[in-house]
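Subject: sequence -> structure tokens, single chain

Hey, anyone have a minute? Need the predicted structure for the following. Not urgent.
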Amino acid sequence: MGFFLSGWLDPSASAPSAIIRTLLDRVAVAEAAGFSSVWVGQHILAAPWPVLDTSVFLSRLAAATSTMEIGGVYLLPLAHPVRLAESLVSLDNVSGGRFLLCAALGWAPREFEALGVPIKQRVGRFEETLDIIRRLWSSDEPFEFNGKYFSFSELRMTARPERPEGIPVWIGGSSPAGVQRAARLGDSWLGSSHTPFESLQVLAAEFERATAETGRAQPRRPLLRHCMVAPTDQLAEERFTEAFNAYYRSLGDWGIFREVVGEKHATGAQGDEVPPGRVILGSPATVLGQLQKYTRLGFNEFIFQVGLPGTPEAAVLESMQLLGREVLPYLHDLVAAQP
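Reply:
Had a minute. Here:
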């Protein structure tokens, strides 16, 4: 069980450092509660709220916990493979081999435009970048690379990941093509927090088919989900819905609301509605019932975004503690019960 630590910095806060101290306090609570990983995402020139740089934030998190894995979602098509390979192997070294990479395609045209990368090239750039960074991490001899987007006559990196097997690469995907790519190239597929349960059923079946076809074992099956746990279902729903709507109102027409979540969230028409099939929400008993549906699809690891910006901190911490104390022990049993 991991948790997703949003790096959004609310401009109305007294200082960015105050928000960062709160986020770091959550790491200590999560570690004490038994969470096994902490994750952050990546956005370029985010507005109206800035986002902490992924590698800088992760390096700080590596020092904030001694036991948890640290995971980062990186937009591979927007990166230079040599620079990224060095940055990520440094993170792995700094953390003592606790770094996990989730490689993502990206979806926001403005991020591609800002870095001068045509968004139509994202799949090809993704695959070439992943190939190059893996070779840099493992090749003892200089190698050549001649691709459509990158060409190198002689390339060699002496830095090495901490673990002999290298840095695990999870691949994010919320479409049939995405899960096929994860089955073919990844060490795991990370399901999106924005994919409704009904769509996950289809994607999980496609992933099973694709992994059987490739013959590549992927024992870890993680899933991202928004989450709020409280002593009662009613209290959990009240806390989540209030923060969910405030979050979307604050960020206004940021592209993800139209292009990923749904147009009505960009127009302020969301009302009191909780996004269907995308949230783990309720008392510990209710949450376990919801999680069982996902374990039946093959998911055996959950990364929870517990505190949307605007959620009272006491509610965030209580939710994390309830997850550790009253959900995690039984979640192990749910996963073990699946064939």
